[in-house]
Amino acid sequence: VKTHLQAQTLAAVAVGHQHNHENISAAFASIYKQHGVAGLWRGVTGAVPRVAVGSAAQLATFASAKDWVCERQWFGEGSWAAVLAGGMVSGVAVAVTMTPFDVVSTRLYNQPVDTDGAGKLYRGFWDCILQISSKEGLLGLYKGIGAVYLRLGPHTVLSLFFWDELRKM
Which residue ranges make up each domain of the chain? Predict the structure, then answer.
């Protein structure tokens, strides 16, 4: 529903498929009416790996980066600066690992579907990856990485900073 509404714009400037929902309630009702409960979960095959890969990258790189800056004595053990440095490195890793999954999820969510709810552009997760890679190159999977980092970078830094501080308590 979020992707349908975010992609929606005036016909004069529209890019991609337009769903033309009036509001969030109408979007839920329309999707449910046309495709049932399964229609509300379309694209989840791209979202689940996105979260798994992003969380794994976030936690693994945070601990490693924090330890690395402390070993080099750039920042003291347990200092807030070491935590922020680890969070910044982690934010980059999260953006790099999650962006391909974001691109795939968005394409799966937003593609037009036939009367049976099957996508008209992609048959699923792997088909979407293969089509993007073959038509747009591997960098096609990284469209919007700047915007992804601007959203996930600060979120990652702050989340890990507060998590680390709470853990110390």
Answer: 1-42, 44-168
